[in-house]
Amino acid sequence: MTETPLALLESTAETLMDKAAIEIPQDYLDGLQAAADDEDGDLSSFVLKAMLENYEAAKEDRRAMCGDTGVPRWFVKMGNEARVEGGMCALEDALRRATAKATNGVPLRPNRVHPLWRTDHDNNCGIGAPEIEYAFEPEGDWIDLITVHKGGLFGTDYRMLFPSDGIQGIKRFYLDSLMAFGKRGLACQPAIIGIGLGGSKDICMTLGKRASVLRTVGSKNPDPRIAELEAEFKELGNSIGMGAMGFVGKNMVVQCNIEVGYCHTGGMPMSVHAFCLSSRRAVARIWPDGRVEYRTDPDWFTPYMRREGVEWAPRVEAAE
């Protein structure tokens, strides 16, 4: 079995760090442009216009699109036959090195510190940083590297609802969260909103965060009933009178993505996450023969990732 070269993984990771910080994904750019065309609030319109101009300047000058470059994190997806030169620990070392190099090279703001001693290594690395999450697919020898630079302060919330709260309870918490994000400056709008429903508390938070950062603008949950909720929640979020950066307007939500996981019968956990107007993500698929394909769609939530049964159905059945 051919192994993917470690040097290729590290150099690709460095390139991804640069792309994520500087080049806004086209799907989000299109969503932001649509919001700008539709916005009629004076200050919200001004902010949207300024941000669109800023994105062009950042790409032209090859500089980070926002002064706060968030906290870099990694998502790694591997085909079942993929192998890494030196093993998975070597891969994690390579991703940490790429993060440290990018912090000083792009540059990125060194946002990572020890929670108590405030120790700062000036490279966005430390205990548990950067986060590295994994997923796998049944076939293939490729490796997908996905980097996301997400704000690490506010713009998230969690609540344990009861099944009897139903859709109305979900809507109430959703609107409560958006009002807090806007009025208290806890997130930079307009944003991609991710909602996690189900799982345990930690999984619920993970589902919501992944929904916000690993799905593209224009995507839909494959469950048509959830897809309807996504469209309804986008419209609902844009009806509360807030726009860009919490100013008066009607474009607070560029997209609302909902992901679910099975949970305890007695509860209905819910999390809400805002992926801010500097929607920073970049993806590369790497093959062991040295080929590298860059893209901006993480393609994380595949049918295999959303499977319900004990065993994964064969490809033919899955396609049906």
Automatic annotation (TrEMBL):
Pfam families: Fumerase (PF05681). The keyword Nucleotide-binding does not apply. It comes from the Bacteria. Residues 12-284 form the Fe-S hydro-lyase tartrate dehydratase alpha-type catalytic domain. The keyword Metal-binding applies. Keywords: 4Fe-4S, Iron, Iron-sulfur, Lyase, Metal-binding. Coiled coil: none annotated. One of its GO terms (molecular function) is 4 iron, 4 sulfur cluster binding. NCBIfam families: ttdA_fumA_fumB (TIGR00722). Belongs to the class-I fumarase family. This is L(+)-tartrate dehydratase alpha subunit. It comes from Jannaschia seohaensis.
